Amino acid sequence: MSIVLDLGGLGPADLAAGPSALSELMASLHVLAEPEHHPEAAGWAARAAAAGPGLRDELSVFAPLWARFRCRLFFPRALPLAASLDEELAAVAALPAEDFLELVAPGVLGTTAQSVPPVRELRAGTAAAEDYARRCLRRSYARGELARQLVAAPLELRDRLLAVLRAADTAFFAEDWRTLRAPLEDHAREIRRRLMVRSPADVLTELLPTAARVGPGERVRLDKLQTDEVKVAPRPLVLVPSARVWPHLTVKHEYPSCVVVQYAVRGTTPAEQLTLRDLHHRLMALTSPARMELCRHLLGEPITTSELAARLGSSEPQVSRALRTLRDAGLVRSTRDGKLVRHRLATDVIQRLGHDVLATVAR
Questions:
Q1: Residue 239, number of CB atoms within 10 A of its CB
Q2: Mean pLDDT computed over 192-219
């Protein structure tokens, strides 16, 4: 499962990289809403929650908008990129009711598996609006209530959301952003330099650990638990670095807005990020009782193939095949000691598997 971006036809004027304060605020609110999914940010989440305890109820009302699906409202929609959170919030405040509805309604529903009615049909009392609200309610009470308010009074909901975002900025985000902004801008400056001399497909595959070129042309596969193919041109491609979005990789490509990829900047993430295929190999390698028994022997001390075979009552070729499977999955490390090769379980990799499973699924 993956999203493939076709980057063919993009020129220098169609490529942008830069941080977005509103997107970073959205990523931060997601961490606050789902702290158990972000153990790496536990310290920050505790401090932020303590800084704005009075915000808890209002943030929970709008939490569907920064859940897994991520509302399009929080991402850049056109170039040039806004210079500040105030500028981005002013643009939201200026949205007419129909534009706000169009950007927010899919986020309230929170899935691409179901379509949202055309905006002109999302009027209080219409059959389409009532069906939309029922579908949101089936997903969760919070989504259903938010859908009802959105359809009944979109501009009132817009202003209420803006008040919550400004309160979060005052409580904890403004201070956080003062620290995060400069390194994110430095990173974006380097990405813009690369985009001037390299193809966007090359830059993307270097930038994202789980991205890979695929097929002919400028096509890049992004490792996601969804399937889609997106032709970017003639729209711009905007790369938005983030310090809070890990382990998620967010791709927003709704027409007619620009295509946005929000990704975690290295240095704010664990050293290794697994692809779905790598995770599958590691889990499958541990499903064999024979390989699991072999792992128990490898846990205590480095050991040779012949000694393992003797302990297990197996032939050396059988043990070698099992070791190869575990080594290819990154679960065993082998080192040469003179004429002997000794093997040992990669306990750090085993310990990380639980977190790797969550991070890969969450991406």
A1: 24
A2: 91
What is d(CA 323, CA 293) in angstroms, rounded to the nearest whole number?
A: 12
* pTM for the whole structure: 0.77
Quickly count: other Cβ atoms within 10 Å of residue 31's Cβ.
20
**How many other CB atoms sit within 10 Å of the CB of residue 178?**
9
List, in order, residues 6 or more apart from 357 with CB less than 8 Å away: 279, 283
Question: From start to end of the chain, where are the E strands?
Answer: 2-6, 15-17, 211-213, 219-223, 228-231, 237-242, 250-252, 259-264, 303-304, 332-337, 340-345
pLDDT at residue 41, rounded to an integer: 83
> From CA 133, how far away is CA 124, in angstroms rounded?
10
Decide if 240 contacts 75 (C-beta within 8 A).
yes
Please report which helix (H) or strand (E) contains residue 205, including its range: helix 200-207
CB 4 within 8 A of CB 226: no
Report the C-alpha gap between 58 and 164 in whole angstroms.
7
Per-residue pLDDT tens over the stretch 12-51: 899 999 999 999 999 999 999 988 777 778 888 889 989 8
Q: List pLDDT tens digits, range 287-312.
A: 888 888 888 777 767 788 888 888 88
Task: Give residue 216's pLDDT.
Answer: 85
Q: How confident is the model at residue 266 (pLDDT cuts 50, 70, 90)?
A: confident
Separation of CA 242 from chain center: 10
Handedness of CA 62, 63, 64, 69 (dihedral sign): positive
Both tokens assigned to 278:
């790598």
| Residue 21 to residue 76: CA distance in whole angstroms | 10
Contact (CB, 8 A) for 230 and 5: yes
